[in-house]
Amino acid sequence: MKRTRRKFTASFKTKVVLEALKSQMTLQELASKYEVHANQIST
């Protein structure tokens, strides 16, 4: 079964980046919360 590629909206990306910049949670915690890989957040 082939999985389709997910597309993230600009508002979703902005929300994740702002939370990452606040530094209240680790990248791993944010990755789990938003169901993305930690490398995607750091990039």
Tell me what you see in this structure.
This protein is mainly α and about 45 residues long. It is built from three helices and no strands. About 60% of the residues lie in helices and about 0% in strands. It is globular and about 35 Å long.
Features:
single chain, 60% helix, 43 residues, globular, mainly alpha
Question: What secondary-structure arrangement, pairings included, does this model have?
Answer:
Blueprint: H1 10-22, H2 27-34, H3 38-42
Could you provide a short overview of the structure?
Helix content is 60%, strand content 0%.
How many strands in all?
Answer: 0
Largest sheet: none
Task: Give the amount of beta strand, in percent.
Answer: under 5%
**Fraction of helical residues:** 55-70%
Shape type: globular
Please tell me the overall pLDDT.
Answer: 90
Q: What structural class is derived from the secondary structure elements?
A: mainly alpha
Write down the Rg.
11 Å
Helical stretch tally: 3
Note the gap between the termini.
29 Å
Low-confidence stretches: none
The SSE order reads HHH
